[in-house]
Design goal:
25% strand, 4-stranded antiparallel β-sheet, 2 domains, 267 residues, alpha/beta, single chain
Length: 267
């Protein structure tokens, strides 16, 4: 079953011209960020999105995350056609259907790891006939999500008391707590060193092995090698869509990396 179904997605930005004018003037510049992209992802896929600067990666990510709408085309997410959705539906989709993981973690500094993970549940939009979630139930789900990312002993710690890798694990737990249709990760290891990067990629691989659908935007081929499929954008067009034939195992690479560094430390 396709979790994501994009057909003929275009995104154009009009720059210049008279402010408020409905007609294009002679000095209006049309920037075509996406030029009719077709993309789909099945449940349980792990896809990396690559491309040079200006290729349309960020624009595609914004549309995938329902942070922006296409100028033309259709985007169906988990059975919901989003292209004509109103702001309330967009808010519902972002909260319930998509788990966001960003490069900068985006954790609240004055709240604990557990409280950070609880936030999506606290702001969760109520569905028709859905009962209010009790505080104890929210806490239980947040605890379970943190256990899933290996932070059993760090739940009461503040972000400043956590390493970069641990902060990203909290962000991943927060992304998973609502059991979204897919996780959208934007350069999720950009602020991490090699060891922590391998830890996070290993965690993503474990979550994917458990059935989570993950879309990861990256500019690093080394990271894309840990995913199952790579799509490449160039000049707003999807120019390549290939399966990863020799997929690397991040935890195996982490084990080798730790061994090499322990030997260097011994010398």
């Amino acid at each position: 079953m396709a979790v994501i179904e994009m057909r003929r997605i275009k995104r154009e930005y009009r720059m210049g011209g008279k402010t408020g004018s409905k007609k294009e003037s002679a000095d209006t510049v049309v920037v075509r960020a996406l030029r009719g992209v077709d993309f789909s992802a099945e449940a349980g896929e792990f896809v990396s999105v690559m491309g040079p600067s200006g290729s349309g990666k960020s624009t595609l990510m914004n549309i995938l995350g329902c942070l922006d709408k296409p100028t033309d085309g259709t985007y169906t997410l988990d059975g919901i056609e989003t292209s004509s959705s109103d702001s309330d539906t967009f808010a519902y989709i972002r909260n319930r259907k998509i788990g966001f993981v960003f490069q900068s973690f985006n954790l609240l500094a004055r709240t604990t790891a557990l409280e950070n993970v609880e936030l999506p549940l606290f702001y969760r939009r109520r569905e028709k006939n859905e009962k209010n979630q009790q505080i104890s139930a929210r806490r239980e789900r947040a605890v379970a999500a943190l256990k899933d990312v290996g932070l059993n002993e760090r739940m009461d710690h503040f972000p400043s008391q956590l390493s970069g890798g641990q902060q990203q694990r909290v962000a991943i737990a927060r992304a998973m707590v609502n059991d979204p249709a897919f996780i959208l990760a934007d350069e999720p290891t950009g602020n991490l060193d090699t060891g922590m990067t391998l830890e996070i990629m290993g965690l993503f691989q474990q979550l994917n092995a458990g059935g989570k659908t993950i879309i990861m935007v990256t500019h690093e081929p080394e990271l894309a090698a840990y995913t199952k499929r790579i799509i490449t954008l160039r000049d707003g067009e999807l120019v390549s869509d290939v399966q990863v034939k020799k997929r690397r195992n991040a935890l195996d690479d982490l084990s080798h990396w730790n061994k090499d560094h322990s030997l260097l430390a011994g010398n």
